[in-house]
Every structure is written in C-alpha cells, then in structure tokens.
Amino acid sequence: MRTMKKLYTLLALFCFIGTAWAQTPKGDVLIKNGTVLTVTNGTLENTDVLVRDGKITKIGKGIRTPRGVQEIDATGKFVMPGIIDAHSHIAGSAINEGTSQVTAEVSMEDVVDPMDVSIYRALAGGVTSIHLMHGSANVIGGQNETMKLRYGSTNPDDLRFEGAPRTIKFALGENPTRGGRARGIQPQSRMGVEMMLRNSFTQAQEYKKKWDAYNANKSARKVAPEYDLRMETLVDILEGEVWVNCHSYRADEIYMLLKVFSDFGIDRINFQHANEAYKVAPELAAFGATASVFADWWAYKLEVYYSTAYNAAILTENGVLTSINSDSGELIRHLFHEAAKTQKYGDLSDDEALALVTLNPAKQLGVDNRVGSLEEGKDADIAIFEGHPLSVYAIPMMTFVDGVKYFDRENDKADQRIYINPESNIEEVTIFDRHDMHRCMEGALSFEELFSTSKR
Amino acid sequence: MATLIVMMVPLLSFGQEDDQVLKARSGKFALTNAKIYTVTNGIIENGTLLISNGIIEAVGANVNIPADAEVIDCKGKEIYPGMIDSGTRVGLAEIGSIAEANDFREHGTLTPQMQALSAVNPNSVVIPVTRVSGITTVWTMPQGGVLPGTAAAINLFGYTPDQMSAGSKGIVMNFPSSPTGWRARRMNEEQKKKALERAFKTVNDAWDKAELYAELEDLSSYPEIEALVPVVKGEMSLFIEVNAANDILSALDWVKERGYKKVILTGVSEGWRVAEEIAKSGLPVIAGPVQAIPTRASDRYDVAYANPGVLQKAGVKVAIRTMDAENSRNLPYHAGFAASYGMGREEALKAITINAAEILGVSDQIGSIEVGKKANVFVSTGDPFETASKITDLFIDGYKIPMTSRQIRLYDEFLNRTPGVDKTKPVIDIKKK
After folding, report:
1. Tens digits of residue pLDDT in A311-360
2. Across the strands, what pairs with A85?
3. The Amidohydrolase-related domain covers which part of the protein (chain B) (predicted)?
C-alpha cells in the first residue's frame, strides 16, 4: 500500500513536470502605429496593439509602452490576424493510414513532426495555425490535429492548439474508390462510398447500444462489451464530439453526405476542397454546412474539371461560411494572395477576402474564441505586412504566435532547420513541381503496391 | 451601331442566354483615352490604340480615328501587350490524372521530332480560362526523357494549330543532372556518378550524330537526329532545362564546347547561386515557376521568389514562366511576386512580354505595343499584377475575343441558382436524436 502511495506521488510529480513542459512561451509586445486589419471591427488607422502574456489586451491609439515590453514600430505597415490554414499536410511525418477503408482510431497527433522546415516557411507567409489533416485515401480516415506553429521546439506537444475541438477526415469520390479498385473491394463507386458511411454509423449506433445497456445495468457477473477505439470515435462523431472534415469535390457527393448526416443526426460538417460546392450552395447554407476550398486549383483530375475560381465567392454570397486553404507546402506561404483572388473572381470586399484565411477557418475549426481576428482578449497570433496583404506586392515581415515572434524578415537567417540528418553528406536538391504537391494520397500508393503482386 | 455592339458585349458575358454563342470578331478597333504601357517605348498617358487587319496600325496621344472604326472608350483603364507564358503545357494537358487527356509526354528518351504544335487541342477548356486573364501567347512544351520534343509558341485563339501558331519552335532538352528524389535515395555515390555519365553519353551521342548529319548529304531518314540539325546549324533555338547549381555550370560548359548559337536555359531554380556565371555566358533564361519552394531545406524561404530578380540584376535576360497548364492564368502573379522580391515591376513586366518574345524568337510579331506588330493586347482596370484588377477587353491576332470561359459561365449560372431552395421549409431535415 505504501509503495502504491509512493508510486502515485511519483506519478503526480511526472504529471506536473509534464504540464510544465507543455507550458509554451508567451510574449509581451506593443505593435505601434500600424494599419490594423481587425477583420471583425474594420480597419483601424494609426493604431496600436498591446500584447501581454500572449494575449491581446488592448487595441487603441497612443497606448503607452509598459515597462519591459518590447515596442515594434509598424508605421506604414499592415497588422492582421495570423493566417489559419484549414487544410495542411506540413509537419506530418505520415499522412495516410490506408490499411482499411475506416481508420477512425488513428490520429495525426501521433505523427506531428515539429522539425519540418515547412513550418518556418509557413510562418514566413504570415501563417500561425494549421489543421494538420489525415489523407484522403479512405472513406473514414484518421483524426486531424489543429496546431499553432510554435517553431523551434522539438516537442510535438508544444505545437498543439490546446483546447481545439477534435476533428476527423472523411473522403468521397475518386480517392477512396481508387483504393477500392486497387484492392478489389468496396467501395469502387460513389454508391459504395455512401453505404460504407451508413454501415459504419449503424455499427457505431449498435456498439453504443451495447455499452449503454451494459452501463445501465452493471453487475459483477456481466462481461463488458469489447472496447473498440474505432467505434468509440464514430460514436463521438454521432454525439458531436468529433467534427467531420470531408474531402469532397462533386456536388452530388456533397449532397449525399448532407443526407447521410441528417439521417444520423449529425449537424456539423466542413467540406474540404469542395470544388463543386458552388452548385449546391443554397443547400449547404440551409444545412449550416461550411466549406474550405482552393482559390483556383482545378483540372488535376476529372472530379475537379468542372470547377470555377468563383467558387469561394458564390459560396460566400449564398451565405456559406467559407475558407480558403492550401493543402500544399508551397501555397500555404501565400494564402493572403490566394484570398485576394476572390476579388478578381467575384468581387469580395477586403474584409470578406481576409476572413477567408483568418476568421472563417477559425470558426470551422472551433477556435474563433481564441484566434481569427484582432480583438482584445484573443490570442496574440499576429502577422505584420509591408503593403496591404491583399496586394500582390505584399511582403510578410513578422509573425507572432502567443505574442512570441517566430518570424522576422529583417533578422532572418537563411538556414532555419532545427534538425539536420547526419547521414546526408550532400544536401539534396529537389526541383519544385506544383503537380507533385498533393500529399492527400501520399502513402496510399505504397499501400496499393502492398496488395499488388509485383512489389517494388 | 458599332458603339451599341460594344456596349452590349460586356452585358452578354454576364447573363448569357442558352442559345447565344459568343464569337470573336475582327475589324477596325480604336481603343481611346487609355494609359498605354508599350513596354518598349514608355507609357502613353491618355493615348489611343488603333487595331486594323489584325495588327497595331497606330498608337499614341494623337491618333486619327477612322470613321469605320469601332471605338472602345478605355477611360481610366490601362492597355498592355498580351502576356506571354514561356513555359507551359497549355493545349497538351487537359485533366491531370487521366493519361488519355495528356499529350505532352511521348515514349522514349530521344524523341526531339515530336511536335507539340500537332498535339495542341485548340478547343481545350483551359485556353479561354487562360486568355481571359490577359495571357495571349504561351510556349507549350513536350516533357520527359532527354530530348522530349519540339516546343511551339501558340497564340491562345484559333481553330487549328496553324491558326494558333505564333511562328516559333524550339528543341527541348533535359540537361543531364545528378539524380535527386526517391531515385537518388536508393543509390550510392558511385551509382549516381555512373547514372550521370550514362546520361551525358546519351546526350553527346545524339548531338555528335546530329553534327555529322548536318555535314553529310543524301542520308536515309533518321527523324530523331534530323530534328536536331536546325539547332546545329543555328536556325533553331535549343531550350535546355536545368535547375541545380552544379548542373547549370556544367550546362554552361557544355554549350560553350558545342558552340551552338541559339541556346536558352530554362527552369534555372538555383540560378541565383551562379548568377554571375550565367550572365558571363550571355545565355538568356526562362525562370519559373516563381511561386515555388526552395530546392534545398537549408535555403532561405524566399529564394524562388527572388531568383528572377537576382538573375536580371546580374545582367541576364530573363523571362518568367508558370510551367503550368490549367493555371497558366497565374502568370501575372508569378511576375508580381518576382517584382516584390527584387525584380521591380518594370522588369517583371518585361519578363512576361518583350523579353519572353525575344527569347522565343517572336519579338518581330508580339511582346510590345508597337506599330506593325500583331494586335495581341488587353485592357485592364488597373495593374494586371494586382488580383483586384479586371481584364475588360482582349485582342488576339486583332480579333476581339469574348470575355468568357467555362468558369465564368458557371459563375453566371450558379451565383443565384434557379431553382434555389425554398426557404420556408427545411431542405434536408436533420433528424434530432
């Protein structure tokens, strides 16, 4: 008994140290005299933003610099909320768990790579938060991880967006049916995708019923039902604890998922990519569904051939909460520019365009109480630009997460790696090709190979 | 009447009826009251541009407008020469993931006789999507292998490849480069060296044969070697795709040794590392994509944005490309990023107009607003590098091109869809638990 007590004390101590480690740095700073693009309260000229202990404590004119607080002169510069990417695959050491068409039990939180230099490059584009997503090889993929880009720590936990709602990846259309065809199993059509979803949720309901019955009438003689993490996660989806982000393109499959969700009482859904969401914009708005789309990517496969760059504008005008995402380690560096394209394609206002990469993704990820706009009380996740961020000539100058400066163009050393592979004596040169950038199916191909007769 | 038609055209592109087909029109057009960026002869404030018989007949502050010309008032707007994307797959690639919809890659390593122009689909959906953004000409390229084929300059309007041809072709060569990526990871240093030697042997054998072939007469047909002869004779340009710094240096040596007169370096991702050497060689460069990730993990995050500017400042003649197919329309933004990160707006504009035209060998025809040149021009509400600017009028080969594309038509159809939803009853009834 005494040893048990000792063990508990030790355990408590470890837990304490654990939380101490997880305590991420918070900064104090006064950003003076900038043009402040609040997103929620318009544009404020010659305005100061005071940050104390990682939070925005005051926005106003002529704020006096408290003792010990660093002052940053933003005269002639633009201060905006840190950009949020609702669909990213940077900082993930694995993307697809493709061993089954349903892998709700796995989570991206286990594969966060805090040493990916892409994180720094995203910061250099004014990005402060990302939604690290599982891939799209299977119908019900793994759980995603909402992160803050606190680059420099080698502890994956330091990058977690503490308190963010849990989310999970679903995928419809070509990707999961491709997997089915490669293995000779269902689904090989959009019909099969629907049934796989319905079957999975029905199984989850039955699983829950068993546990409910067991819990309602516990006795020493009864054996508990088998614990199944996959089913637990699906139940969490049914209960609204885990939010679905569904890879989708065509209007028909988007509509199908709305019907499936309504049948199972799930009322929250964010469609990812959703190139044809514009075709069912009124239905999405009526349902309260949201969409996270590309500014202009199309034609890389059949299901995105009937796209239009006006997608985000049509959705916005129809009342659908919309964000613009990157799904790319390249695009993530200029999401402000991607948002600006909605002014060419659909005449969105400055605030509407900026919201596509700040407030709207924050709402979709359930973190808009913390980030997404410049407001007193919110986290000091801030980007400072030379030139208006919606101008092609805009240059991100500084990026703060929790008031801590993680990027400063004026004091930027070239090599920002925090880990260098000792085995590589010659540094690898990789020639960029935009068409190689899709990580959504990464790892899935090797899975198909695994099941094919000829192994490479 | 003429002015009436002009007024109706923009209306037609929004709210088009089902049975209306918008066609391009030729004729005499006077674009008045515009700020005209000639690129080669400065900016004309409040100028007039006269288009007739497909060419620019007059340009300046005081131009007599013929009575039969259709007048387009461009007050408050700007006119530019059509933008030229000097590296694309436009017309050759329709849907990325579908092999049957891609015609830019032929089987084999030595296929320089393959003609991109023959495989250009004039009715590609990508073409109108691209041109309504002000891109009037693209360099469309075969890819893959060592000598994948012959690229062609095409104007983005026409119903046959010949109607589209901008009159220039060039041989594409992928310069032997040190293996990278997953292939390299499976090789040791010795294997990499061997692979590089093999690639050089393939290339040099082909060009040795071409040089011999150029000397001799009455030879039997040898298509892949014959295709190279115009380069050997200095009648056609050779476009060498090369990216890593070491490979660029080795390409410079190779060109010097071979002594070919017309050579252009393309890609040149790491050009900024060896800008002085490239400048010394006098070879022009087609750089891009600009919106790209650095080639090395240790590189500063913005080196790809800065690359064209570094090269230009070193004295290299630079054109910018997207190396894209469906999003070649983003060319002005690639140029805009280059402008912001060191190149400056004026030089970036040249990089997608006159420099591109000179490098592709079509500057006698296009690339600037000059009397006698082909009327490839567009009218913009402002700086075309800015995303907020709109292209309002477009001319290719003197044809007034309808400002529509499938993407615009989908916008028109779906912005306020009919039928929408009945707001009085739920569209989809969410079953409450």
Report:
1. 999 999 999 999 999 999 999 999 999 999 999 999 999 999 999 999 99
2. A130
3. 315-398
Side chain identity at B60, as an amino acid letter? G
Taking the Cβ of residue B75 and every Cβ of chain A, the question of whether any pair is shorter than 8 Å is answered with: no
Same domain, yes or no, for A326 and A397?
A: no
Contact A327, A439 (CB under 8 A): yes
d(CA A277, CA A284): 8
Kindly list the residues from chain A whose CB atom is less than 8 angstroms away from the CB atom of residue B414: 278-279, 281, 308, 314
Condensed to tens digits (0 to 9), the pLDDT of residues A320-332 reads 999 999 999 999 9
The pLDDT of residue A10: 54
Residue B202 belongs to domain spanning: 83-366
Nearest Cα to B81, choosing from B37, B49, B46, B45? B37
Interface test with A, best of B13, B293, B341, B424 (most A CBs within 10 A): B293
Contacts of A144 (CB under 8 A, 6+ apart): A107, A108, A131, A132, A133, A134, A167, A168, A169, A245
Q: What is the mean pLDDT of residues A205-230?
A: 94
Among A365-369, A417-421, B305-309, B359-363, the minimum mean pLDDT is found in A417-421
State the smallest CA–CA distance between residue B270 and chain A in angstroms.
Answer: 9
- With bands split at pLDDT 50, 70 and 90, how would you rate the model's confidence at B180? confident
The reply to whether A322 and A390 lie within a common domain is no
What's the rounded mean pLDDT across residues B250-255? 98
Q: Does B14 touch chain A (CB under 8 A)?
A: no
- How far A228 CA lies from chain B's nearest CA (Å)? 23
Alpha helices in B37-125 (DSSP H): 116-119
CATH of the domain at B395: 2.30.40.10
pLDDT band at B6 (very low <50, low <70, confident <90, very high): very low
Among partner residues B415, B421, B430, which is closest to A283 by beta-carbon distance? B421
User: What pLDDT shows up at residue A218?
Assistant: 83
- Whether residues B326 and A429 touch (CB distance < 8 A) is answered with no
Same domain, A34 and A171: no
How many domains are there within chain A?
A: 2
Are A305 and A317 found together in one domain? yes
Query: Other CB atoms closer than 10 Å to residue A208's CB: what's the count?
Result: 17
Reported as a single tens digit per residue, the pLDDT across A288-305 is 999 999 999 999 999 999
Residue finishing a domain among B328, B344, B366: B366
pTM for this structure? 0.94
Please work out, in degrees rounded to the nearest 5, the angle formed at the alpha carbon of residue B257 by the alpha carbons of B252 and B262: 65
Token output for A369: 């109480």
Indicate the pairing of strand A127-132 with strand A83-88.
Answer: parallel
pLDDT tens digits along B43-91: 999 999 999 999 999 999 999 999 999 999 999 999 999 999 999 999 9
B291 contacts A330? CB cut-off 8 A: yes
CB B132 within 8 A of CB B411: no
Mean pLDDT for chain B overall: 93
Using the predicted structure, report yes or no on whether residue A24 has a pLDDT greater than 80: yes
Name the residue among B125, B269, B406 with its Cβ closest to that of A431. Answer: B269
Contact A428 B94 (CB under 8 A): no
CA dist., res. A91 & res. A156, Å (int): 9
* Three-state SS at B415: coil
* Token reading at B191: 């294997």
Query: Among residues B137, B162, B148, which one has the least CA distance to residue B356?
Result: B137
Let me know whether B274 and B236 are in one domain.
yes
Whether the Cβ atoms of residue B119 and residue B149 lie closer than 8 Å to each other: no
